[in-house]
Specification:
141 residues; alpha+beta; 4-stranded antiparallel β-sheet; 2 helices; 9 strands; disordered N terminus
Length: 141
C-alpha cells in the first residue's frame, strides 16, 4: 500500500514539475493590489479579494481516504486563496512580488485585530493571530 501511495505522489510531482520547466516570465499582480511580505513570503491581496503568495511551499492538494485520510501536499511556487480555499498555483504569468520586494506586513497593516496588526483590503484580510500565528482569509471564504 505504501508503495502505491509513493508511486502516486512521485507521478503527481513529475506532472507538476514538467510545466515548471516551460514557465513564462512573471508579471505583476493586477494594478491596485496591496503587496506585503511576511515571514519571507511575498504576497498580495488583489482587488477581487484573492490572496496570492510567491515562494516555494508545501500546499495540500488532495487526501487519500486510507484510515481517516492521508493528506498529500505538493511543492508549489505559489499559493492562491479565494472563496474555494487554498490551492497551489503554477501560473507564472502573475507574480505577487513587486520589483525590489514587497514592503513588510507591519508597514502596510491598516487595522488592529484582537491579537495584533491586521491588513484588510477588498473584503479579504491577513492578520497576526493567536500566539503570533499568521492567517489570511480571502473574500467569500
Amino acid at each position: 500500500m505504501k508503495r502505491s501511495v509513493l508511486a502516486l505522489a512521485v507521478g503527481v510531482s513529475a506532472a507538476v514539475t514538467i510545466p515548471l520547466v516551460t514557465a513564462a516570465t512573471a508579471q505583476a499582480a493586477p494594478p491596485d493590489s496591496v503587496y506585503f511580505n511576511y515571514g519571507g513570503k511575498n504576497c498580495a491581496i488583489t482587488p477581487d479579494g484573492v490572496i496570492g503568495c510567491d515562494g516555494w511551499q508545501m500546499v495540500p492538494v488532495f487526501s487519500i481516504p486510507l484510515g481517516g485520510g492521508i493528506p498529500i501536499s505538493l511543492p508549489a511556487p505559489q499559493s492562491i486563496q479565494d472563496a474555494g480555499g487554498v490551492r497551489p498555483s503554477y501560473d507564472f504569468s502573475q507574480s505577487y512580488t513587486q520589483p525590489g520586494g514587497n514592503p513588510d506586513f507591519f508597514q502596510v497593516a491598516n487595522d488592529q485585530g484582537p491579537w495584533g496588526p491586521k491588513l484588510s483590503f477588498a473584503g479579504a484580510f491577513c492578520e497576526v493571530s493567536f500566539r503570533g500565528t499568521f492567517r489570511c482569509v480571502a473574500r467569500g471564504a
